[in-house]
Amino acid sequence: MAGIYIHIPFCKQQCTYCDFHFSTTFEVYRKEMIDAICLELKTRKKYLQGKEVNTIYFGGGTPSILLESELTLILDTIFSTFSVNLTAEISLEANPDDINSSSLNMWKQHGINRLSIGLQSFKQSDLDWMNRAHNVADSSSCVSLAQAHGFENITVDLMYGLPDLSMDEWSLHVNRVMEMGVPHLSAYCLTVEEKTTLSNWVRKGKINTSTEDTQSDQFVKLLECIEKYGYEQYEISNFSKPGFESKHNSNYWKGEWYLGVGPSAHSFNGASRSWAIANNRGYIKALKNNSTYIETEQLSAVDQFNERILIGLRTSYGVNLDDLSNLNEITEAFNVTVNGFKEKHWVKDSGGTLTLTKEGKLRADYIASALFLD
Predict the structure, then answer these.
(1) Quick check: 119 and 158 in contact, CB under 8 A?
(2) Which one of 3.20.20.70, 3.40.50.2000, 3.40.190.10, 1.10.510.10 gives the CATH number of domain 2-252?
């Protein structure tokens, strides 16, 4: 079982908070990029060692920018190169302003069966300073339109911890998504990343960030809202109705193999992690000239042990202690630390599997780092 991630590095405009790899001046090499992505898929055919592909994910960037001919070419290349399960989950990230009857029909016809829609906020002033290409009206209409076109498996993104976002506003945002009947929500706390417009504004005092207490309070409010509507928190930032968990992302968290294709895309095969250069022109040139464009890091037993903790504790699947001991010996210091977290009611042990409590989820990164092996 494996997944394929396709990174589409195209965006109409730059969001102020985003540090993902993308370009807004891609038209001059658009065809070359699509050709390079298809060539990479073919040349890395053996990476998954014949494993069946059960998830395909178009991320970015903005995959909803893709023309029908481009989407067709990429999908045809995947299906002709790899063994793909006929019931594979095929996800596409979409901006609200790209969603219309024509695009929805086209995606449906090409086998897209899961949409990830980047709403971010229902507050127009937030969308304005974020430099999002859509407006609040688009946020509501795009979801109902997708549903009307037969898309049941829809997830939306919301952000909390935004400047000047009140608790009441945040509660209204979450409740609004729940009332739309969307079966999956991804909610992320705003992070000020280096080399973004937002970080420059913060440094110059042009915008104020929220406090950690406000972020924690909004996270707790989020948990209260989703529980009321019957959603399950299966990962720190991801909530779904039963059966609508993201299969692709769940494979990441469970340590399954995946091939990442496109500039900056990451891959994982159990023993190593690799990534392509984050340079569009360099990526295209390297594929044309059959030169190096990928870096690889071999993961030691300690690396794998620590990754299993970092990722596993963020999920409802948790961390199985037997699996950990197969990677590396569990030390007495590890057990002492775990027992300390149990006493604080941050961690619970259910049949040899560690999971975080509600209180622990507020401290997920701290708890994971405290359990890392040096």
Answers:
(1) yes
(2) 3.20.20.70
